Amino acid sequence: MQVVSVINYKGGVGKTTLTANLGAELARRGQHVLLIDLDPQSSLTFCFYHPDEWRAELRGGQTIKRWFDSIKDGIPSVTLGEQVVYPRPVNAALPDGSGRLGLIASHLGLIDVDFELARRIGGIEQKFDPALFRMRGALADALHDESFAEFDWIFIDCPPSFNVVTQSAIIASDHIVIPAKADYLSTLGIEYLYGNVQELVERHNEHSLKHAKMRHSRIEPNIAGVVFTMIQFRNGSPISALQNYINQVRGLGIPVFSTYMRENNTLFAGSVPRGVPAVLRERVTSQINIELRTLASEFLNTIHAEGAAA
């Protein structure tokens, strides 16, 4: 099982669209995929469930908020595996039934969890706090439960912030994917995010080393790469204004995927009422499907190459 966090500080960059389509495409290829929606905006959840369905079927008992609410001093009283659901439309759209796509839904009230946790932390602290250490590692612990053994991939759609919830996702992850628009603010945000991830990893590993009795071992999440989204093309390549920003990110030494997600009203529309991501919908233009599937192949090749190098 590989755990991948999808994160960017800046909203509106196609983070949820990338997560939903990448997960759906791998499920189409026969993989067992779980998507976890950690964003209080719940956009990923509403890609697969109409808000009325969410209220009737999930809000009261099957969301990530219920699990976070049950945590006291880093120890949850609710099993995370109990929160997994399998959205009917997307699983019905998978070709032969060998693949499967599960979801742990978000909740609009998750932002209250963020505020409650934030009261205990003012950034990435220097002093060791056992309770906070356990809180950050709770998701990693939960995903090692045997109830998740059936999944080949877990994708975590993170909120556009670096709060304790996001930090817990990074600590649980093997890889990090950063979706971004090719613009000035995204370029700045990528460098800042990269620095914060490095600092969090160093601090976590330092505390793990000093406090061997803690359950969390050393972590080494890889930055799989930046995926540029909403790209406008001319003659088969990004327009020059966008290419300049792409080159700036490459200049930072951060990996960049060579496959881009082009600007498309259908692809980057809000929620999908019928609950099926664009990569599985026949009415989407063939060019969009080709690019999404090419991106999925590049992602798999990147992860496999990282594994071989390790």
Description:
With 310 residues, this protein is an alpha/beta fold. The chain has a single domain (2-309), classed as Rossmann fold, CATH 3.40.50.300. Helices cover 44% and strands 15% of the residues. It contains 11 helices and 11 strands. It has helices at 15-28, 43-48, 51-58, 64-69, 88-93, 110-118, 130-143, 164-172, 184-210, 240-251, 286-309; strands at residues 2-6, 32-37, 71-72, 75-76, 84-85, 100-104, 153-157, 175-181, 222-229, 233-234, 237-238. Strands 5-6-2-7-1-8-9 form a 7-stranded mixed β-sheet, sandwiched between helices. Helix 9 (184-210) links the parallel strand 8 and strand 9. The longest helix is centred in the middle third of the chain and has 27 residues, at 184-210. The protein is globular. The two termini are 16 Å apart.
Relevant terms:
310 residues; alpha/beta; Rossmann fold; 11 helices; 44% helix
Portion of residues in beta strands equals 5-15%
**Average of pLDDT:** 85
Overall shape: globular
Written as H for each helix and E for each strand, in order along the chain, the element string is: EHEHHHEEEHEHHEHEHEEEHH
Major β-sheet strand ordering: 5-6-2-7-1-8-9
CATH topology: Rossmann fold
Proportion of helical residues: 40-55%
Counting DSSP H or I runs of 4 or more residues, the number of helices is: 11
The CATH class label is Alpha Beta
Tell me the total number of β-strands: 11
The termini sit apart by 16 Å
The number of domains: 1
Question: What is the CATH superfamily classification?
Answer: P-loop containing nucleotide triphosphate hydrolases
Structural class: alpha/beta
Low-confidence stretches: none
Indicate the CATH architecture.
3-Layer(aba) Sandwich
**Rg, Cα atoms, Å:** 19 Å
Largest beta sheet, briefly?
7 strands, mixed
